[in-house]
Amino acid sequence: MKAVAYQHAGDITSVDALVNIEMDIPTAQGHDLLVRVQAISVNPVDAKIRNHKSAEANQWKILGWDAVGIVEAIGEQVTQFNIGDQVWYAGALNRQGSNSELQLVDERIVGHAPVSLNASEAAALPLTAITAWEMLFDRLAVPQLTTENTTILVIGGAGGVGSMAIQLLKQLTKLTVISTASRPETSEWVKQLGADYVLDHRQALAPQIQQLGLNAPLYVFSTTQTDQHLADIAELIAAQGHFGLIDDPEQLDIKIFKSKSVSVHWEFMFTRSMYQTQDMIKQSQLLNQIASLVDEGKIKTTVSQMLSPINAENLKRAHQQIESGTTKGKIVLHGF
């Protein structure tokens, strides 16, 4: 089977940063599905791992943590899927990724793909949907469909996770949603997704919220550059508020939250698959819920750019765009 992989961690400009290879087709066992990949999307985690983690000696590392495809074979313990089903998923960090024609993935982190989107449109959503959902409803415990007059601030709303978080908040909660963006096109993007207010994250955030005359946000969800905004967040968040982040600041001194008794939450969507938690199947259930919301017209794809085919050249282009920090929505690749 065709795949795109690498052996040595390094900069995307390196000749062997990503290369086209041929691999043996793996065998489905246990809870595994063997999926023929139709479309994938690229996430910041792809670039982070490529920069820092080499393959094991004389082996290849295949990246990719978003895919839509067709089930070609199933393991003996599979109960939720049949051969021929179209599925979507974000995979697991400790297994080979989706940048290959065929991929093994545990059925407990796989959902049935939405029927109203094509494979490329759907591939933009799994990882960001899981991350946003788990942060909002599992970590921050944001109340769904209540009339509570509460505000949430989403920092980096135009990125993949932010784009999903805004949509989930508008469809499943009554919260006032404030998003940040820094360019006219990204400001317009988050407004289209449902943000009630937009702040410029190149400027101090607390004064901007005060100027709007809004209540201090009870929830703050930071998707990027948390270290640059931490002092601002501590100033603007409500007393006894809830703060969550998904990026990787080199240092995170949370003592500044003590006087307000702010709870701090870190979301990592690979935790369930990495540690084989007892509730691992919740990611399958979550993806099925997202698919239903998509098919009901309540959630739209966040794809902003499509490339074809899936090969080393196009994946390098996608990685460079991701590393520029200017991506709006998601970059999708389709077809081998």
TrEMBL record:
Write down the Pfam families for this protein, in alphabetical order: ADH_N, ADH_zinc_N_2
Q: Does the keyword NADP apply?
A: yes
State any single GO MF term.
oxidoreductase activity
Gene3D superfamilies (alphabetical): Medium-chain alcohol dehydrogenases, catalytic domain (3.90.180.10), NAD(P)-binding Rossmann-like Domain (3.40.50.720)
Domain Enoyl reductase (ER) residues, every copy: 13-333
Alphabetically list the UniProt keywords: Metal-binding, NADP, Oxidoreductase, Zinc
Q: Matching InterPro entries, A to Z?
A: ADH-like_N, ADH_Zn_typ-1, ER, GroES-like_sf, NAD(P)-bd_dom_sf, Zinc-ADH_QOR/CCCR
The record's comment on protein family reads: Belongs to the zinc-containing alcohol dehydrogenase family. Quinone oxidoreductase subfamily.
Name listed for the protein in its UniProt record: Zinc-type alcohol dehydrogenase-like protein
Traced from the root, the source organism's taxonomic lineage reads:
Bacteria, Pseudomonadati, Pseudomonadota, Gammaproteobacteria, Moraxellales
